[in-house]
Design brief:
The chain is built from twelve helices and ten strands. The chain is of the alpha/beta class. It has a single domain (48-319), classed as Alpha-Beta Barrel (TIM Barrel). Strands 1, 2, 3, 4, 5, 6, 7, 8, 9 and 10 form a ten-stranded parallel sheet that branches. β2 (105-110), α5 (117-133) and β3 form a beta-alpha-beta unit. α6 packs across α8 (181-193). It starts with a helix and ends with a strand. The chain binds iron/sulfur cluster. The site of iron/sulfur cluster (SF4) has 8 residues, from loops.
């Protein structure tokens, strides 16, 4: 308990915890840890909750071999219908639907290593239309783009780039061999140079250790990341991780709480796999998490915006952009 309080004090005084200070949190009693994480969240972020939605703007046929992913062409998993980049009309229609439900952020996500130049031009047109017609904030997840493309994307009206680190630098080569951790970091840095915010977290349950998760969050902190998606692996049949054991709700609660200690003022965001948690994330929202992806996920069903809005209101949160 004393350790938790001491670390909390250091954080309140503007200090950043070292890895040596963070590691003991993996062994601390869960309830006081989550309680302290909730207090840190309230101290730095108040009751603001950042709820976003995603649209699968291009699906499947991916050249990459990320072992968790149903969209990879390397495995037998089928993610439903594969399709090329959606039309502006479809992307805007979904944006308007989300804006009408009170969602403030809308992310266009595409499969593949990176969008082509022609696809970037097309999607910039969609971003402009979304900003003009739905007024919702736009985030993008278009793979390993460079600075010049990110400048175009910012000028079209997007504000944030998503590119997950997925795991630690040590563990990532066991998850994916077709691109590197350095590729991901360069993508995040290029987005920042282009004047965009960056959102980056990972997937829990790939076989990584708690230390890997902490290393990932420390890398995100060093990169100035202020939105950290915490995905829980949904072991999809036909992917190499199909037999991975599911994480328990308490394991996810600890991850979320520890991440809050690492980046005290970030949006710690429950993302894919939230539906696998018995309480749909409620305990995490009372233990350090203050953001979520709502609605359907990329290859799995999520939780509806309406359900999330009702829960968040009940918990005393106000939905605002984080
Ligand atoms: S995570 Fe992205 S890059 Fe990796 S296989 Fe899936 S769609 Fe392709």
């Amino acid at each position: 308990m004393d350790t938790i309080r001491k670390l909390q004090e250091k954080i309140y005084q503007g200090g950043f915890l070292t890895k040596g200070e963070i590691m003991p949190l993996t062994e601390m009693p869960l309830e006081p840890l989550c309680q302290a994480a909730d207090e840190i969240r309230a101290h730095f972020c108040g009751n603001r909750f950042d709820l976003c939605t995603i649209i699968n703007g291009k699906c499947g046929r991916c050249s990459e071999d990320c072992k968790y992913c149903a969209q990879s062409a390397h495995y037998t998993a089928a993610c439903g219908a594969s399709y090329p980049l959606l039309s502006t009309e479809k992307i805007v229609e979904q944006a308007k639907h989300n804006a009408a439900q009170g969602v403030l952020r809308y992310s266009i996500v595409t499969s593949g290593r990176r969008l082509s130049e022609a696809e970037v031009e097309r999607v910039c047109e969609s971003i402009r239309a979304v900003r003009r017609e739905a007024g919702i904030e736009v985030c993008v997840s278009f793979g390993l783009l460079g600075e010049a493309d990110f400048v175009k994307i910012r000028e079209a009206g997007a504000s944030r780039v998503h590119c997950n680190l997925e795991s630690s630098e040590r563990y990532f080569p066991l998850v994916c061999t077709t691109h590197t951790y350095a590729d991901k970091i360069e993508t995040l840095l290029a987005a920042k140079r282009a004047g965009l915010e960056v959102c980056s977290g990972g997937i829990m349950g790939l076989g990584e250790t708690m230390e890997d998760r902490i290393d990932m969050a420390l890398t995100a902190r060093a990169l100035g990341v202020k939105s950290v998606p915490v995905n829980v692996l949904n072991p999809i049949p036909g992917t190499p991780y199909e037999k991975n054991p599911a994480l328990t709700n308490d394991e996810v609660r600890r991850i979320v709480a520890v991440f809050r200690f690492i980046i005290p003022d970030a949006s710690i965001r429950l993302a894919g796999g939230r539906g696998l948690l018995g309480d749909k994330g409620e305990k995490c929202f009372a233990g350090g998490a203050n953001a979520a992806i709502s609605g359907d996920m990329l290859t799995t069903a999520g939780i509806t915006v309406e359900t999330d809005m009702a829960l968040l209101r009940e918990m005393g949160y106000t939905v605002v952009k984080g």
